[in-house]
Design brief:
The chain is mainly alpha-helical. The chain has a domain at 2-80. The chain is built from 7 helices and 2 strands, in the order H-H-H-H-H-H-E-E-H. The chain has a two-stranded antiparallel ribbon with strand order 1-2.
Length: 156
């Protein structure tokens, strides 16, 4: 069944991502998933037409795999910076006073955390104690400005 092939490939990619997350490397979680997910996807692209011929049945598992991978990456990156997700994780361990939750996310600490992540991703750099946009950050900014213009959103 084509759907099972797509689901199986996705399950394999997630399993391999779990293993890749435990290997010490200077890659963020998204890149780690791409490192294991792309070969699985390429194998699926090669296997589906062999199994089902060059038909829509062969495209179904490939499209399902692509959708599930994109959704997985979206959810994964969403929870990396989600204040709510982090608070829920804290609450999972047991009851926590509201003051303890509030103390975890002080505005200055939230900014510092985001700056550190942006530095790790190569979007900003720090020189002589001052932050500036790196080349990658400027490129991403141009994309955002173009998209904002395309969707007719007002400038901030």
């Amino acid at each position: 069944m084509p759907v099972l092939l797509g689901l199986g490939a996705f399950a394999l990619a997630v399993l391999l991502h779990g293993f890749a997350a435990r290997v010490p490397a200077k890659l963020d979680s998204v890149r780690r998933f791409l490192l294991v997910g792309m070969p699985v996807g390429l194998a699926l692209v090669a296997a589906a037409p062999v199994a089902y011929g060059p038909t829509l049945r062969a495209a179904a598992p490939i499209l399902l795999y692509a959708f599930l991978c994109e959704f997985y990456i979206f959810l994964f990156t969403l929870t990396l910076s989600s204040v709510s997700a982090t608070m829920l994780i804290m609450l999972r361990r047991g009851p926590v006073p509201p003051a303890a939750l509030a103390s975890v996310y002080k505005p200055a600490e939230m900014v510092q955390l985001r700056v550190e992540r942006m530095q790790q991703q190569g979007l900003v750099r720090q020189i002589d104690g001052r932050l500036s946009a790196a080349d990658r950050g400027r490129s991403l900014h141009r994309v955002f400005v173009s998209l904002r213009s395309f969707f007719r959103h007002p400038p901030p």
